[in-house]
Amino acid sequence: MNEKEHFERLNQYYEKSKIGYDFALWGSKHFGFYPKGQKISEKEAQILMQELVAKKLEITSKDLVLDAGCGQGVVSTFLAKNYRCKIEGITVVPFEVKKANLLAEKLKISDKVNYSIMDYSKTKFNNNHFDCIYTTETLSHSINIRKTLKEFFRILKKGGRVAFFEYTLAEDKDFSKSEMKILEKIAKGSAMDGLKDFRHDKFQNVLSEAGFTNIKVENISENAGPSLARLRKFALIPYYLFVKPFGLQGKFPNASAAIELYNMAEKGLIRYNIFTATK
């Protein structure tokens, strides 16, 4: 995979999707966390997911944290404001840096955050620099997950913590041919070129190979499910009237994902997980 081509497709995807993200998710790019048995709004669920990032990392006001794939700064500004930590946010999408800075200014925490254009597989940070590193649904954009994890390991302090909120897939043989074809269209359209590196019950082995220890995985698919169900409602009519009949899943990856990934998740083919580990 050519890096330049990948980053071009990634930028095209986010440029094309930014209105949808703003409308449906208020600029964030992660699912919410719905506690079992509780009826809450998507906005409340998103805040709970952001609090879960802090909880899993055990963030304190003394920590320097990396948001790897920071998007428009929704998670990082929340953490900086509520936990008073300092955060470096990096992305390869230029307009996201501008939006993240505007949000930080609005929340009056510009002194706590810094945003820059940077590839998380090849950063400019020194060795042993961060106390914590996290991702929220961004690692599938890595075209070489092992290289990315080795870079995280390099820039993380000894004893530092990581938390990755990411999807995993069943093995290819568990998908039907039509499901696999649609999944590949969605992955290509959204520049999730590394998605197939994330497999059920195996990704923790990849973390171990990168040098991380105390690895834990928590399947929170049931808690994230209502977020996907909500997006599915938005996508139902356009998907079945326009996208699917004309085979345009690759051109409309978000609408396609809302429908098809929901169906796959119902079968257990896709999970939503939290991976935590230390150096």
- Report how far the terminal alpha carbons are from each other: 29 Å
**Rounded radius of gyration (Å):** 18 Å
Oligomer class: single chain
Number of helices: 9
Nearest-integer average pLDDT: 96
Helix and strand content put the structural class at: alpha/beta
Largest sheet: 7 strands, mixed
Task: Walk me through the structure.
The protein has helices at residues 3-25, 42-57, 74-83, 94-106, 145-155, 177-189, 203-209, 221-243, 253-266, and strands at residues 64-68, 86-91, 113-117, 130-136, 156-169, 213-219, 270-278. The protein has nine helices and seven strands. Strand 2, helix 4 and strand 3 (113-117) form a beta-alpha-beta unit. The chain is globular, with a radius of gyration of 18 Å. The mean pLDDT is 96. A seven-stranded mixed beta sheet has the order 3-2-1-4-5-7-6, with helices on both faces. With 279 residues, it is α/β, with parallel strands linked by helices.
Highlighted features:
alpha/beta; 279 residues; globular; seven-stranded mixed sheet; 7 strands
Write the layout of secondary structure elements.
Elements: H1 3-25, H2 42-57, E1 64-68, H3 74-83, E2 86-91, H4 94-106, E3 113-117, E4 130-136, H5 145-155, E5 156-169, H6 177-189, H7 203-209, E6 213-219, H8 221-243, H9 253-266, E7 270-278
Parallel strand pairs: 1-2, 1-4, 2-3, 4-5
Antiparallel strand pairs: 5-7, 6-7
Helix pairs in contact: 2-3, 6-9, 8-9
